[in-house]
Amino acid sequence: MSKRRAARETVGSAEFKARCLELVDRVKESRTEFVVTRHGRPVARLVPMDQVMPASLVGSMANSVIAYDSPFEPVPAVWTVDPRHED
Prior knowledge:
single chain, YefM-like fold
């Protein structure tokens, strides 16, 4: 797996919809990165998976919880493992 810098191309959302499978194959084979635009504004990015995965799972969720004031209080909800249970 090479970590070289991938080429980046822009594609409109309508063209992306029409050529999606072809573009996915191109990302896999040539590691080209695509920025999908809608009305000229970037809305999504198609990149090879190794650019997305965290280097380590340890710490990958750091700073993902904004605030939780009472971590030791019961959760205000009814929980059950019985799928037949109805409220």
